Backbone:
């Protein structure tokens, strides 16, 4: 089968530019026993990819090697098979990379229940959902009646965190970068949504959280982080999931003064999902249950064609994505 793939051939110089990729064509490899060929139909674009392009070998996951296909997760169908457990047409998810076809075995692709739309898998059952679940329930450990603030709230992770927190009986405040995103957050049940670009952010947050903030799910860093940190209640918990505001800069932003960590006895914990691989299946099932019961909603931002990933990934850093960013192949 003829495969088109996009390889990473240079490290980014701050921003992701088209010249760091090369488009290559090749014949797919012969399948050995147990292997099967996946035709990828939907590919996820994630903020973490910016970090995977860096040569940093001390991070939670190795960098993408230069010359290798760009790493990504995706959904597809088995198109050829040497594995009786994965017959033709099986719906699968896995780390397929920026390419049309991926040679897989049972360790690199998981069968998905037939009938679930690929967009629902990538938006809810895969990384965004399990990340939201891990950060909310295993790091923050929310209690009914508390107030939670969420940055990057209109994004794929943040929007799920807010909806699950609401189900748990919390007051939910989201930060997003446009009035349209804030309006959408209100439609999915957020109590308050604040545009973090507002000049009077501190006052807006005080009005939205008159009793202070008990929990903070951090996806972005920046202005929201400072405003929230200074309004945290005693024994507050902060889950540090992402800092997208700092991914495309060589000058890390200044964090808040740590004295409040002592005064308010705040617990702050970073987490990354590769550490929790053994629990992915359980967490995906929990996310699937919310979805089946109609308790959570998601929205997607779909762009067309493999090569659209090259420019499209930057939507994540400009805020141009309205929902889970997905490439439809
Ligand atoms: N720890 C883990 O294992 C793990 C796993 C998955 C994701 N994450 C992290 O979770 C965060 C959200 O990921 P996602 O997949 O759900 O992406 P997403 O929120 O769907 O998309 C990224 C959003 O980030 C916002 N953003 C971009 N630059 C910003 C800036 N300078 N300041 C504030 N907001 C900015 C934009 O929304 P606005 O229009 O609202 O600005 C953009 O739409 C990321 O930081 C990601 O790295 C971590």
Residues:
């Amino acid at each position: 089968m003829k495969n088109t793939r996009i390889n990473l051939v240079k490290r980014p110089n701050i921003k992701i530019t088209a010249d760091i990729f090369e488009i290559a064509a090749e014949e797919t490899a012969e399948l050995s026993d147990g292997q099967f060929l996946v035709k990828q139909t939907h590919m996820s674009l994630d903020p973490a990819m910016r970090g995977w392009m860096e040569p940093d070998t001390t991070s939670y996951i190795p960098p993408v090697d230069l010359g290798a296909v760009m790493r990504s997760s995706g959904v597809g169908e088995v198109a050829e098979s040497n594995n009786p457990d994965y017959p033709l047409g099986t719906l699968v998810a896995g780390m397929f990379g920026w390419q049309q076809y991926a040679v897989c075995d049972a360790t690199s692709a998981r069968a998905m229940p037939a009938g679930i739309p690929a967009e629902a898998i990538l938006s809810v059952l895969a990384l965004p959902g399990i990340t939201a679940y891990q950060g909310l329930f295993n790091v923050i450990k929310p209690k009914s009646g508390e107030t939670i603030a969420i940055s990057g709230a209109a994004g794929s992770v943040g929007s799920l965190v807010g909806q699950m927190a609401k189900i748990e009986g919390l007051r939910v405040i989201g930060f997003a970068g446009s009035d349209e995103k804030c309006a959408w957050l209100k439609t999915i049940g957020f109590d308050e949504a604040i545009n973090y670009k507002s000049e009077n952010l501190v006052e807006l947050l005080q009005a939205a959280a008159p009793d202070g903030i008990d929990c903070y799910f951090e996806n972005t860093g920046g202005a929201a982080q400072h405003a929230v940190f200074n309004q945290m209640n005693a024994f507050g918990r902060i889950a540090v999931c992402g800092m997208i505001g700092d991914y495309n800069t060589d000058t890390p932003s200044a964090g808040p003064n740590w004295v409040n960590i002592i005064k308010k006895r705040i617990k702050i914990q970073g987490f990354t999902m590769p550490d929790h691989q053994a629990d992915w299946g359980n967490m995906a099932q929990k996310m699937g249950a919310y979805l089946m019961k109609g308790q959570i909603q998601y929205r997607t931002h779909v762009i067309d064609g493999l090569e659209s990933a090259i420019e499209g990934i930057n939507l994540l850093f400009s805020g141009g994505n309205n929902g889970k960013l997905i490439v439809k192949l």
About this structure: The two ends are 16 Å apart (CA to CA).
